[in-house]
Amino acid sequence: MAEQMENNYYDSYPDDRGHFGQFGGRFVGETLMEAIYALEEAYNHYKTDPEFQAEMDKDLADFVGRPSPLYHAVNWTKKLGGAQIYLKREDLNHTGAHKVNNTIGQALLAKRMGKTRIIAETGAGQHGVATATVAARLGMECVIYMGAEDVQRQSMNVYRMKLLGAEVIPVESGSRTLKDALNEALRDWVTNVDDTFYIIGTVAGPHPYPEMVRDFQTIIGREARNQILKAAGRLPDALIACIGGGSNAIGLFHPFIGDEEVAMYGVEGAGHGIETGQHAAPLCAGSPGVLHGNRTYLMQDENGQIIETHSISAGLDYPGVGPEHALLKDIGRAEYVSITDEEALQAFHDLTRIEGIIPALESSHALAYASKLAPTMSSDQILLINLSGRGDKDMHTVAALAGLSF
Amino acid sequence: MSRISQCFKKLKADGQTALISYITAGDPEPWVTVPILHALVDAGADILELGIPFSDPMSDGPAIQKACERALKNDVSIHNVLDMVAAFRKKNTETPIVLMGYANPLESIGYEKFAQRAQEVGVDGVLTVDMPPEESDEFLPLMNKHGIDTIFLVAPTTSLERMAYISEHAKGFIYYVSIKGVTGSAVLDVTEVADKMLELKKNTNLPVGVGFGIRDGKSAAAISEIADAVVVGSTLVSCIGEHAKRPEELPAAVAALLAEMRHAVNARDVAR
Q1: Which end of chain B is more exposed for a tag (fewer CB within 10 A), N or C?
Q2: CA of B15, closest CA in chain A: separation in Å?
Q3: Which domain range does residue B100 map to?
Q4: pLDDT at site A332
């Protein structure tokens, strides 16, 4: 039965047109159509090319520091008094988050496609830093689009990108956050499509991005699956990961989709609370529509206009979500929940004080949901949480909330 | 034969190039859109493109982005846009109207309902920028059923095979995007466009309109030499932006700009 689910799912999604059921697809202007077909062709060629895979594996090991550890958080487990808590330590990757798994892969692809210029959008700045890092290493020109609002709240990452040689362009249009950075990056790509490779940071955008970024991120789940089998002798009862666009979550979930006994929880940003409307939870409180190249769940008004989102965490502040999550929600394979700013902040402080790990505010949403779920479970059960990034970048935000500045 | 095809047929018989104007519906205020449309027709527009405002216009440059923002400040919805077409049709039943925009506002009303209403109010064509033929399985048959022409873009990056593929799905005319870039972003290279136009003409029997980058009488005239239609958008929209505080001046101001283009195109047509 498990095998059947596995085969059906893995063989079916996405289909050859990039559709995940009714979601996904290629909703872009004509100027980009040939470019996304060329990307698809290149990706399909190199994903099974042993030389490409070997170069990527080497980079992931020696440059990123993989495999990332699976850490049994004994103190926090004790404190919560329920399921055993394991943390997948993506925060220990070079550049501080899971984002680099994907930028390594896409940059190697860009090089093979003969592109000389790299562009990317970024929210919290983690994807921007991970992109600027690989661009620096490959000696490629790099331009990062970042919402002006995010430039302000993530100034540390902006400086890191500049140190790495990237040009950071603040985007002043619309809500001045991640979605507007994506619009601007798409506009750049249309204008410079011949020499430019667009490294999308999440499992959204037109086909083949949701599939390709997922594939690059599934290293998280593949490692975690082996590690938990080795550490505990069995699969976890549930997986938890935060969801902005959803790349760290799909990276963890995907290799477990065929393991029907493993529950999956994707945690969206509830901001000030779903009921206030000020949140970033399209799967929990949105509806299907088309944005940024794919059909998926969106935060939109009754006229199909995209609504401005709010989350304490810039990386979750996005009105859409990867189309594969939309599918997993509709077929009931994963459950999508939400956590408020306040709850995430509490988890941020808890993990810092109890385990000596300062998590990113994004990942703190997953941790906060774990702190609700764990006490309802027994001590012979296992929760595996993706600690997708570290909190260094969030020092200013957290300090400001405590009335401090430095 | 659709109103758009009739229009092209008549112009061709008269040896004229079609002039297509674009404005965003509800910009800067909803009441002024219909008066501007009438003024554009009086000044010589043959086909009217009316933009459906969208919060995230990814293929557009700053001029049309700002136009969308101004329209959305007034909460202009797809329903309002359809009402504007109905109001325009009370006085003008001849000039074809093409709605242009992004997929999501059409998804919000639903393709079927959109097609029905569009036909009722007198819309002739629709161009959905981010919906290529590949994603139009559901959309195309509904538009066909309700007699709405589906207009698609062809870009400088489009291959010959793809031109033929797009042409199979298109009705009314083909919209050739003359530059790699967003609307209003650069000045087009007429020789390059002319080369592409030869290829495109081999792969379609539909009339071809050229847009993105036509700013003045001179570029309009140059394009009229090689295309069946000249599309003028960002220039008109920028003019609307400059007059946003004085909307009552807009019908005359926008019409004056278009008249200049008409004059230049006509002079070229006569010389030809």
Answers
A1: N
A2: 30
A3: 3-271
A4: 97
* CA-based nearest distance A209→chain B, Å: 16
| A299–chain B nearest CA distance, Å | 12
* Encoded tokens for A121: 């959008």
The series of mean pLDDT values per 10 residues for chain B, 272 residues long, is 95 95 98 98 98 96 94 97 98 98 97 98 98 97 98 96 97 94 81 92 96 88 94 94 96 96 88 72
- Going by C-alpha positions, the residue among A238, A308, A298, A310 that lies closest to residue A269 is A310
Q: Which amino acid is at B200?
A: L
How much is the ipTM here?
Answer: 0.96
pTM for the model stands at 0.96
Q: Is the pLDDT of residue A154 over 90?
A: no
Residues of B in contact with A193 (CB under 8 A): 157, 180
Q: What is the mean pLDDT of chain A?
A: 95
Considering only alpha carbons, which residue of chain A is nearest residue B62? A173
Per-residue pLDDT tens for A200-232?
A: 999 999 999 999 999 999 999 999 999 999 999
A4-10 contacts, C-beta under 8 A, 24 or more apart: A5/A257, A5/A258, A5/A260, A6/A257, A6/A258, A7/A258, A9/A257, A9/A258, A9/A333, A10/A257, A10/A258
Query: What is the count of structural domains for chain B?
Result: 1
pLDDT band at A1 (very low <50, low <70, confident <90, very high): very low
Q: What is the mean pLDDT of residues A16-40?
A: 97
Chain A residues with beta carbon closer than 8 angstroms to that of B181: 31, 190-191
- CATH code assigned at B15: 3.20.20.70
Confirm or reject contact between B155 and chain A (CB < 8 A): yes
Pick the catalytic residue: A40, A121, A149, A362? A121
Which of B130, B180, B196 is the best residue to mutate to test the A interface, defined by the most A CB atoms within 10 Å of its own CB?
Answer: B130
B152 contacts A190? CB cut-off 8 A:
no
Active site members of B: 49, 60
Q: List CB contacts (< 8 A) between A288 and chain B.
A: 107
| Residue A372 is a catalytic residue | no
